[in-house]
Amino acid sequence: MMLQGKVALVAGGTRGAGRGIAVELGAAGATVYVTGRSTRAQQSEYARPETIEETAELVTANGGNGIAVQVDHLVADDVRGLVERIRKEQGRLDILVNDIWGGEKLFEWDKSVWEHNLDNGLRMLRLAIDTHLITAHHALPLMIEQPGGLLVEVTDGTAEYNAEHYRLSPFYDLAKVAVNRMAWAHAKDLSKHGATSVSLTPGWLRSEMMLEAFGVREVNWRDATAKVPHFIISETPRFIGRAVAALAADTDRSRWNGQSLSSGGLAQVYGFTDLDGSRPDAWRYLPEVQDAGKPADATGYR
């Protein structure tokens, strides 16, 4: 396995992209610490069934070693304790994936700053930005103790797309743009230690919450295109997971340092596919088809 002996921390691995990333790192042989707030004994405010234990079990079932640790990444002491545990148990950290989010129930579509609920907007920024900085502050010193580490900051939208498109509200827009810039800034510091930092976005993600919102399951996801035709470009969480695994296994990954990447873009470089064998390239499709007002047609984009 290409990541045998490597240690990863997937911060925010309860569901969605984080779960997909954790599972694919496990499939590549890594030991993966999966963190989040939702456990079998205690749910977060999401009040959803997915848990960190379930993700860790999927990691192990796919060939890795999954370890679930309940952590609130807004609590610095919790994160400090997590990193101390990883140091004690593994003595190293090779891959840090910052996928902490938690804002799906907080943002309000197409609301100006004076219309949007202020408390929800500010909470969203704390969840999207403060959590990533707190985790990086505590985890990166362990990662840089040996050269070759990889930091992946997960966001929504490439830097190029986000620079030209307004993302729903000032709060959501800032949250997603900030993470791209954060990865670029970390790259300046990490390059001095032989480590690599990138931001990475999935395309239109078929997360548990998205499938539920559209009233479908993974087995019949295409039924949702009857109401939302452009959903035809969507992808599973495992697709971005394979992107992270490919980056982590690339001995020349430093060529990506500081860059904004996408699952679909990296699939064209590394040759991996989604679970159905396709390579959906959402961030090329969106401006060329959806935003251009063309009929939904993924031909040539997956």
Shape: globular
Q: Mind describing the biggest β-sheet? A: 7 strands, parallel
Number of strands: 7
CATH class: Alpha Beta
Q: Mean pLDDT, as a whole number?
A: 95
Classify the beta-strand content into a percent band: 5-15%
**Helical content class:** 40-55%
Look at the structure and name the CATH superfamily: NAD(P)-binding Rossmann-like Domain
CATH architecture: 3-Layer(aba) Sandwich
Number of helices: 10
Compute the gyration radius: what is it? 18 Å
Low-pLDDT windows of residues: none
Strand arrangement, largest sheet?
Answer: 3-2-1-4-5-6-7
InterPro entries: NAD(P)-bd_dom_sf (IPR036291), SDR_fam (IPR002347)
Organism: Mesorhizobium jarvisii
Pfam families: adh_short (PF00106)
Protein name: SDR family NAD(P)-dependent oxidoreductase
TL;DR?
This protein has one domain: Rossmann fold. It is 42% helix and 12% strand.
